Amino acid sequence: MRIVILGPPGAGKGTYASRLTKILGIPHISTGDMVREEIKKQTDLGKKIKEYSDKGVLVPDDIIIKLLEERLKKPDCKEGFILDGFPRTINQAEALEKIAKIDLVINLKVPDDIIITRLSNRLICSKCGAIYNLLTLKPKKEGVCDKCGGKLYRREDDRPEVIRERLNIYRKQTEPLIDYYTKKGLLRNVRCDDLMIPPEVMVEKIIEVIRETVEEVS
Ligand code: AMP
């Protein structure tokens, strides 16, 4: 199954997708992780995209579409994938249509106050990319990843002023995708109105939607 997870920054896309990938046996493809990987490697491309990413603005469509297209050509994507953070513009959605047929778009609906609290308390593993939260998903040992022992850090774009910019960009450039995929009959909403809902509960809700979609088409 080819799934897109849509939602504002801090909606939980990465957290849920990293759990869904294990349950569904299809890869979790995060363009944000790909961007951070390129930056870490300090490639020419990495240096160019760091300027965008640090400010919380979108990397130009042509760059990100090319990165994604290359990733989707890899053999592990044959049976499907979970896209997290792509598409983020109508232009990207149209490009994606030419690359792959999407079966389902999960739209995470999360109020702004939850998003801001989440992002302000988020920590990421510098080694494996695992996501933690000081309020809801604390590491066992302060500053250290439970999974790989890597050092946890705060993302450059999780600073309050950048969070606001990212939310503005989401509203302007990404939110129109809700309408776009609704018109195509692919969109299903999953709500999260409580900051303290454990990720497992949200993942179960998403799995239920996936089950219903599979039943509808079969
Ligand atoms: P994320 O981890 O998904 O919040 O992405 C982090 C940053 O990477 C974003 O703020 C953008 O600068 C860049 N990025 C990730 N995915 C995309 C995309 N689909 N289009 C443009 N920029 C992206």
Short description:
The chain has 218 residues and is an alpha/beta fold.
Q: Main traits of this protein?
A:
50% helix; Rossmann fold; single chain; 3-stranded antiparallel sheet; 9 helices; binds adenosine monophosphate; 218 residues; alpha/beta; 5-stranded parallel sheet; 15% strand
**CATH architecture group name:** 3-Layer(aba) Sandwich
* CATH evolutionary superfamily: P-loop containing nucleotide triphosphate hydrolases
Mean pLDDT: 94
Instruction: Indicate the proportion of strand residues.
Output: 5-15%
> What is the CA-based Rg, rounded?
17 Å
> What is bound: which ligands?
adenosine monophosphate
Enter the CATH topology name.
Rossmann fold
Structural class determined from secondary elements: alpha/beta
Provide the domain count. Answer: 1
- Poorly predicted segments: none
Quick one: overall form? Answer: globular
For the record, the CATH class is Alpha Beta
User: If helices are DSSP runs of H or I spanning 4 or more residues, what is the number of helices?
Assistant: 9
CA distance, first residue to last residue: 13 Å
Succession of helices and strands: EHEHHHEHEHEEEHHEH
**Strand order within the widest beta sheet:** 2-3-1-4-8
User: Got a strand count?
Assistant: 8
Share of helix, binned: 40-55%
Write the layout of secondary structure elements.
Blueprint: E1 2-6, H1 13-24, E2 28-30, H2 31-41, H3 44-55, H4 61-72, E3 81-84, H5 90-99, E4 104-109, H6 112-120, E5 122-125, E6 131-133, E7 152-153, H7 160-174, H8 176-183, E8 187-191, H9 199-217
Parallel strand pairs: 1-3, 1-4, 2-3, 4-8
Antiparallel strand pairs: 5-6, 5-7
Helix pairs in contact: 1-9, 2-3, 4-5
The protein binds adenosine monophosphate (AMP).
Residues 9, 31-32, 35, 52-53, 56, 58-59, 64, 85-86, 88, 92, 157, 166 line the site of adenosine monophosphate.
